[in-house]
TrEMBL record:
Source species, domain of life: Bacteria
One matching Pfam family: Pentapeptide
Gene3D superfamilies: E3 ubiquitin-protein ligase SopA (2.160.20.80)
Region named Disordered: 1-35
Protein name per its UniProtKB record: Pentapeptide repeat-containing protein
Top-level taxonomy: Bacteria, Bacillati, Actinomycetota, Actinomycetes, Streptosporangiales
Amino acid sequence: MGQLEQENQVACPAAGPLPRADPSQPPSPRRWRPMESRTLGRIKIMLPDLTEPGLHLSSVESLESGRGTVQEFQYADANLRELDLAGTHLITGRITGLRAARVHFEAVNLHCVQLDACDLRSARWAGGKLTRVVFHNCRIMGAALSDLVLDHVLFDRCKLDYTAFTKVRAAGPVAFSECGLTEASLTDCDLSGAVMRDCALRDTEFGRGRYRGLDLRDNDLTALRGVASLNRALIDRAQQDQLTQALMTELDMTYGDDLNMP
């Protein structure tokens, strides 16, 4: 499959044909443009293209819809006591400055959506697929994320400390860049081929799951937990000592010469 075909599989929904000067003429085809992307390690993530010609994002006052779909939208600076969505599709949009004291998502799908500076701490998100989604500078601390499928998803400078990832699967490129994952836990996840770059992994627990090719380079691995679960993950040679220290701490190992100390 060529690069163009691969990119079309994750393309944002088209905003329609370009305007016609002469109505008697057939619609002009939309000009193909290279998609915006970001490369981290060995993967390239296709980003949501929210500035393409002909696309207009309409301001909305709610992410709820009687039809279950909100499309080509802009949602900004909402301060909510509760945000409860079920069976909702958010397609081609930008969410900025959202704050919610309680967040509960069930079977919520995002396609070509960017979230900036949102506070979704303690969110409960069960089920759904995220395609071409960026979380930038978001607080998602203490959340419970389960049964999610991620495809071309980037967490950029996000706070994910104390968050529980359960049965989260990378179906395409996924990256965590400069994120806090202190005391986060991953259980029954498939992060094969994903990238974690310059992240805080203190007491981050990797439980059972699939981590083949998970790129852990450029992180301090000294204090992570669940080293034995990281079968076939990718590290730098310089990180071998860090993993050794993490394993010894996890197993509560003791040096023999320490026993002779008064």
